């Protein structure tokens, strides 16, 4: 008799539905929040435990295989250039949807509940003088172990790349080191599959807490913003991502189906970190070299947040419209310019999207208090942003692999998972 097995995506979906139901039943209950929170925290902590070892080991193994620092430098330049182009397109799409659909027009601010944003203000103030130059300087860690402990992804990527080049440079003497990190990489991917069994429980806890705290009714007053936000992201996926994938000779919707488990998990937890190991593994199986996959995905977590940058442009216009402030083309170009800088410069800090928005509103003279009105539904919007970020980084791996002439599409993997 054939044993009935529920796939991971369906398990996560069940956890999501149960979390919404339980959260709605116990809406407003502090006890329910305290009971549900540990379920989500358990999963997030387990994921954070494995991310750094996987990134370090994968990059060292991948780069040591390339062994040419000029090749690595060319890869880095192409990656950053692509990230900059696509995130700028995302900002333009966000501004376009804000102008066309006017989500903030006619909103009665007195009817909206406000949420404290003080937790983000201190971070934004500390980042006001933080320039792009500072960001690039901070890529080089002064203390590698501190960077590893804090999960500073760009510093970790930089060190791992240099270390990998060093392993290749010393030739045969570096072989034991390379073998060690190959073993670490394979072991950590096994551990990842073990940790993923906790995903449905984590989703249940995280969604349950969100609904219990804010309730489903929190969407109603700001429903237009939520609809425009998700509509703009859907447009970005179906048009921009699809065109880029088409140029690379691949059907992006098949890639989405391949990544359905990871996208559902990223959406449910509003955390890209939860799927980083599995995204790297799947993109490698799809046909991208380990050297490119292990470099592009972690770097993209700071430089290629397409969903977040799109939302930041849209939210800026929303707040201007809510306060009845008319923004000219010149004003919006200023917003575009500021966001190009701020979205990269402080992308690695906690609550990055809110910190970026605070910095942007201050720079263009808009009332930062407007963020308090949308803070209550930010978690709902963050779920969509995170899924788009994951799609963008997955597509980036294909683009850069194709650009380097090293993408070998495994049709069997794509068709098997898509079917």
UniProtKB/TrEMBL annotation:
It holds the Pfam family SDF. PROSITE patterns: NA_DICARBOXYL_SYMP_1, NA_DICARBOXYL_SYMP_2. Its main location: membrane. It is found in: Cell membrane. It comes from the Bacteria. InterPro entries: Na-dicarboxylate_symporter (IPR001991), Na-dicarboxylate_symporter_CS (IPR018107), Na:dicarbo_symporter_sf (IPR036458). GO terms for molecular function: symporter activity. It is a multi-pass membrane protein. One of its GO terms (cellular component) is plasma membrane. Keywords: Cell membrane, Membrane, Symport, Transmembrane, Transmembrane helix, Transport. The chain crosses the membrane at residues 7-27, 47-67, 79-101, 153-171, 198-220, 232-253, 329-348, 354-375. GO terms for biological process: dicarboxylic acid transport. This is Proton glutamate symport protein. It comes from Terribacillus halophilus. The lineage of its organism: Bacteria, Bacillati, Bacillota, Bacilli, Bacillales.
């Amino acid at each position: 008799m054939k044993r009935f097995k529920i796939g991971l995506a369906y398990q996560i979906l069940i956890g999501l539905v149960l979390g919404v139901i339980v959260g709605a039943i116990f809406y407003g209950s502090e006890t329910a929040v305290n009971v549900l929170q540990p379920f989500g925290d358990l999963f997030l902590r387990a994921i954070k435990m494995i991310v750094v070892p996987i990134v370090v080991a994968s990059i060292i193994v991948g780069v040591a295989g390339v062994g040419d620092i000029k090749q690595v430098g060319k890869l880095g330049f192409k990656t950053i250039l692509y990230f900059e182009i696509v995130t700028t397109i995302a900002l333009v799409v966000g501004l376009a949807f804000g102008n066309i659909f006017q989500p903030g027009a006619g909103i009665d601010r007195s009817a909206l509940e406000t949420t404290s944003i003080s937790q983000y203000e201190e971070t934004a103030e500390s980042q006001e003088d933080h320039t792009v130059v500072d960001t690039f300087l901070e890529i080089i860690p002064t203390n590698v172990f501190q960077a590893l402990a804090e999960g500073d992804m760009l510093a970790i990527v930089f060190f791992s790349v240099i270390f990998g080049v060093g392993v290749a440079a010393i030739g045969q003497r570096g072989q034991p080191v390379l073998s060690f990190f190959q073993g670490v990489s394979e072991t950590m991917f096994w551990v990842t599959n073990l940790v993923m069994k906790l995903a449905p429980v984590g989703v249940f806890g995280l969604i349950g807490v969100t609904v219990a705290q804010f309730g489903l009714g929190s969407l109603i007053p700001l429903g237009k913003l939520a609809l425009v936000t998700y509509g703009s992201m859907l447009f970005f996926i179906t048009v921009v991502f699809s065109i880029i994938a088409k140029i690379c000779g691949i059907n992006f919707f098949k890639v989405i189906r391949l990544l359905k488990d990871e996208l559902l998990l990223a959406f449910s937890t509003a955390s890209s970190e939860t799927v980083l190991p599995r995204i790297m593994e799947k993109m490698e199986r799809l046909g991208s070299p380990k050297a490119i996959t292990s470099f592009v995905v972690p770097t993209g977590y700071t430089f290629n947040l397409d969903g977040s940058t799109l939302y930041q442009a849209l939210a800026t216009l929303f707040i201007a419209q809510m306060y009845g402030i008319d923004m000219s083309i010149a004003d919006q170009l200023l917003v575009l310019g500021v966001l190009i800088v701020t979205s990269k410069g402080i992308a690695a800090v906690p609550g990055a999207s809110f910190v970026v928005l605070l910095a942007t509103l201050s720079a263009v003279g808009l009332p930062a208090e407007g963020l308090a009105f949308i803070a209550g539904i930010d978690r709902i919007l963050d779920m969509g942003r995170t899924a788009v970020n994951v799609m963008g980084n997955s597509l980036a791996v294909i683009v850069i692999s194709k650009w380097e002439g090293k993408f070998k599409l495994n049709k069997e993997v794509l068709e098997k998972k898509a079917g």
